[in-house]
Design a protein that fits this description.
Elements (H helix, E strand, L loop, with lengths): L1 E12 L2 E14 L2 E14 L2 E14 L2 H13 L7 H12 L2 H11 L1
Antiparallel strand pairs: 1-2, 2-3, 3-4
C-alpha cells in the first residue's frame, strides 16, 4: 500500500501529548485500484514515546473522493485508531459495493 494523502493533528493532556496521523492508502486488488485509510496515534510523555496505536482498513472503495471524505470525517473529529471501525464501518460496508462495478468492467474487457 502506498500513502497518497496524510493529515495530522496533536492534542495535549497535561504532560502527555498525542499525535494523530490520518492517511489515505492506495493499492490494487484483483486488478482494481483500491483506496483505504490508516489511523495512527503516538502518545508522548515528557517528549518520549510511551504508546503507539494503529489500525487500518486497507480496502474501502475504488473511488478516492469517498475515502477522502471519510478521512476528513476522522480528522475533524480526532478519531482514535481504536474507534476507526466503529466510526466508519457502515460507510465501508456500503462503499465495498463500488468494487462490484469495477470487477464487472474488468470481466467484460
Amino acid at each position: 500500500m502506498k500513502v497518497i494523502k496524510s493529515l495530522n493533528t496533536s492534542v495535549r493532556y497535561g504532560s502527555r501529548k498525542s499525535v494523530y496521523y490520518y492517511r489515505v492508502v492506495r493499492g490494487v486488488i484483483h486488478g482494481v485500484q483500491a483506496y483505504g485509510i490508516e489511523v495512527e496515534r503516538v502518545d508522548y510523555e515528557d517528549d518520549e514515546i510511551v504508546s503507539i496505536e494503529r489500525d487500518a482498513i486497507e480496502v474501502i472503495s475504488p473511488q478516492p473522493h469517498k475515502v477522502y471524505e471519510l478521512l476528513n470525517l476522522l480528522y475533524s473529529n480526532i478519531v482514535s485508531p481504536i474507534h476507526l471501525v466503529d466510526v466508519i464501518g457502515e460507510f465501508v460496508d456500503d462503499y465495498l459495493q463500488d468494487f462490484d462495478r469495477g470487477f464487472c468492467e474488468i470481466a467484460t474487457n
